[in-house]
Amino acid sequence: MSHAPRTVDYLRISITDRCNERCLYCMPEGFAGWKERADILTYEEILRVVRVATGLGLRKFRVTGGEPLVREGVDGFIAGLAAIPGVESISLTTNGTRLAPLARLLRTAGLGSINISLDALTPSVYRAITHGDVQPVLEGIHGAIKAGFDRIKLNAVLIRGMNEQEIWPILNFAAEHQLPVRFIELMPISMSEMLNETNFLPVGEVMRMLRERDDLVPLGELRLGNGPAQYFRLRKLGVTIGFIGAITNLHFCENCNKIRLTADGKIRPCLGNHNELDLRAILRSGGSDEDVATLIRNATTGKPPEHLFRQNYQPQRIMTAIGG
Ligand code: SAM
Ligand code: SF4
Questions:
Q1: Is the Cβ–Cβ distance between 174 and 181 less than 8 Å?
Q2: I need a surface site. Which of 1, 163, 182, 213 has the fewest CB within 10 A?
Q3: CA 314 → CA 115, 181, 321, distances in Å?
Q4: Is any ligand 1 atom within 6 A of the Cβ of residue 21?
Q5: Residue whose CA is closest, atom 16 of ligand 1?
Q6: Pocket lining: 95 vs ligand 2, CB cutoff 6 Å
Q7: For the chain, how many structural domains are there in total?
Q8: How far is the C-alpha of 63 from the C-alpha of 12, rounded, in Å?
């Protein structure tokens, strides 16, 4: 398949592989294979990478994990990012559980926008999916609204048999607070056994379900942030919805503009491809900024045309270590 050249200007940075939740699709229950602290890049090392990356035209940065807010000092790190010339946007993806007390600090530090995962509103369903409590997440969402971010989006991973009944309640909640929601197809990232016909709920089926009650109006080329979602508006309810159909949308990779920095210092050009380049080895063996730049350049030019998720892809590394 041939693709037009894609401009890579977006780096997703995983600052930790640790998490205080255990989502079924992300982290195996009882998982304890954390990286040693010494293997995780320090904030200073990451900021150096970002300084070099901006010189190569990367402009947009997302902080993620694992759960980024379980690492100490995220606000100071965000302030460090914000101080780097060439950094145009800083965003964060979080499960929201620790957001309430931090939202204002993060905003003041320079965080522009925030994505909060919310797979269910019913406490028992939320718990069944994440092993956690939904209440602190709702408090986190309210804290974020009060802190006045440029944009707040809700993310929900679709799991057949678990959260179909949650879709309308999530949409009603989103409409009430005027937040866009993105529905994400399950990907075989951490646990290949989760991705089977029983659990997989394609975005097309959700669209059909929504059209039974409301008008789903395509928003054409609208992009909210830098993600790969296709946006629609539910006309009567008055809410904007993004669909991230990584598996069923055959054009999904065409506009992919990102690479990833894993918590342990590997550059990963594509989430759905095992290839990684070892940046930490360069950072910790006295490599020059030019060496760092060469590796990042190799990652951007070597980005595969599309992911391998449809080709019996077998995950080798859990999502929290890669950075969602
Ligand atoms: N802990 C934060 C959170 O949950 O938002 C940030 C990291 S998490 C890995 C980033 C995003 O990846 C979340 O929206 C999560 O729902 C999504 N995710 C994780 N595993 C996934 C999978 N197997 N398929 C689809 N999305 C997944
Ligand atoms: Fe943790 Fe986020 Fe993975 Fe859930 S999706 S286990 S909250 S890193």
A1: yes
A2: 1
A3: 27, 29, 16
A4: no
A5: 157
A6: yes
A7: 1
A8: 6
Identify the nearest ligand to the CA of 92 by its number: 1
The model's pLDDT over 249-282, given as tens digits with 9 standing for 90+, comes to 766 677 778 899 999 999 987 776 777 889 999 9
Quick check: 286 pLDDT over 80? Answer: yes
138 CB contacts (<8 Å, ≥6 apart)? none
Residues 294/321, Cβ–Cβ less than 8 Å: no
Q: Provide Rg for the chain, Cα atoms.
A: 19
CATH number of residue 17's parent domain: 3.20.20.70
Q: What is the pLDDT of residues 153-190, one digit of tens each?
A: 999 999 999 999 999 999 999 999 999 999 999 987 76
- 88, 85, 51, 14: which is closest to 292 by C-alpha? 51
Distance CA 97, CA 215 (A): 33
The boundaries of the domain holding residue 230 are: 10-322
Residue 5 lies in a domain: no
Q: What is the pTM of this model?
A: 0.92
Distance CA 261, CA 322 (A): 8
Look up residue 92 and give its two tokens: 């964060």
